[in-house]
Amino acid sequence: MSSNFGDFQMRVYADAVKGVNSRYPFDFRSIEHKAAETLPDWVYRYVSAAAGDGRTQQAKIDAFSHYGVVPRMMVSPPQRDLSIELFGKRLISPIFMCPIGMVGLCAPDFHGDIAAARASAATGVPFTLSTFSQNPMEEVIEEVGNTPSFFQLHLPNDRELAASFINRAQAAGYSALVVTVDTWELGFSPADLERGNVPQFRGFCMQNYYSDENFTKHLAKPPHEDQAAALAHYAKVCVQPLTWEDLRWIRSQTTLPIAVKGIQHADDSRLAIDNGADVVYCTNHGGRQANSGISTLQLLPEVVKAAGSTPVIFDSGVRDATDAVIALALGATAVGIGRPYAYALSYGGTESLTHYLKSFLAQFDLTLSICGFKDLAALKAAGVEPALTAAR
Ligand SMILES: Cc1cc2nc3c(=O)[nH]c(=O)nc-3n(C[C@H](O)[C@H](O)[C@H](O)COP(=O)(O)O)c2cc1C
């Protein structure tokens, strides 16, 4: 599989020579700035919000500047292969889109899950659909083309509804179940508390629930006729203290590969595997849940070591393709992009997100090839070096 994604930049320069400059930005700061200008204020505030005083949110970004990779010369790889095997599928690269509940609200037409699925089809970058989506999971997967996609599960405390979500995801054709274990209740978010800003409490991104008869059978009227009653029922089923027994139950419900999302401790890495995980997902939920003050990147090597031969995938703080290179060199098998892709959706839907993902892949490929790495095995063998740079 050729992974010369860097060719994208030559097309950008060729278009510019013909007088057509790119309509969309290439760096995170500009992307975030454009999103802040474009998104409705309440959506931007929700996506950018952090738990507590935001120290974990900041630490997860700063952590990348403490590592670097050392470039090697005269080993230019003209053909690169950056593909990986994950969840029994061959992926064109180790980059994927994280589950972001409310990403549905980030596209101009408020159907961001569909727009992201189409960008996934156009680029080969897998999309992870959150339980919270503006369109039901069956409609979203219709749009992903040949690119594998994953379904993220927030486990409801109603077993019938939970089993239904799992069975629907498998029947619809998702390639894996991403079970989130760090969000059994909401993190303490001052920015959201100030404005009472949790979109699902106002009926947004509830389409997986509202399209499920195991949810609607508890309502006297359909959700669109009595939203208050639907949300009152949601409030009853959404919170649930999770235990490893719950993971064993999920395992018993499906043959889909399972990634357990929210792991930061080596012991939890082992426990996740012992209780049914095929993949460990190391993340701090973008600093929105536990405001522990520690970066997930720093914890990644121990989680990887404890996981042994089980793949560990990673997100939190990836703002630049160089960050993905560092996480891979520290042992991750695949790396998730979070907020940046939600922001990139805001100013042009599928088109601007496709541009962003192609640009990210180009920078990823060029960073590796200019450093002399022809594939990910070469990067992992070289590893990282400490960097003296100050935090970004
Ligand atoms: C607005 C928002 C909503 C999110 N919703 C979910 C979700 O529904 N399920 C989930 O597992 N993770 C969710 N996450 C966490 C992301 O999957 C990912 O872990 C996080 O965004 C990574 O941090 P970063 O975006 O700062 O890089 C959400 C993140 C954001 C910013």
Commentary on this structure:
With 392 residues, the protein is α/β, with parallel strands linked by helices. The chain has one domain: Aldolase class I (TIM Barrel). The protein is 44% helix and 10% strand. It has 18 helices and twelve strands. The protein has an eight-stranded parallel β-sheet. The longest helix has 22 residues, at 349-370. It starts with 6 loop residues before the first helix and ends in a 6-residue tail after the last strand. The model has no long low-confidence stretch (mean pLDDT 96). Flavin mononucleotide binds next to helix 3.
Provide tags for this entry.
eight-stranded parallel beta sheet, two-stranded antiparallel sheet, TIM Barrel, about 400 residues, 18 helices, alpha/beta, about 45% helix, single chain, binds flavin mononucleotide
CATH class: Alpha Beta
How much helix is in the residues? 40-55%
Estimated radius of gyration = 20 Å
The assigned structural class equals alpha/beta
Name the average pLDDT: 96
Question: How is the CATH topology named?
Answer: TIM Barrel
Major sheet description: 8 strands, parallel
Secondary-structure element order, N to C: HHHHEEEEHEHEHEHHHHHEHEHEHEHHHE
Termini Cα gap: 35 Å
Examine the secondary-structure arrangement and name the CATH architecture.
Alpha-Beta Barrel
Number of strands: 12
Low-confidence blocks of residues:
none
CATH superfamily: Aldolase class I
Overall tally of structural domains:
1
Number of helices, counting only DSSP H or I runs of 4 residues or more: 18
Give every kind of bound small molecule, once each. flavin mononucleotide
Strand order in space, largest sheet = 4-11-10-9-8-7-6-5
**What global shape is seen?**
globular
Range of strand content: 5-15%
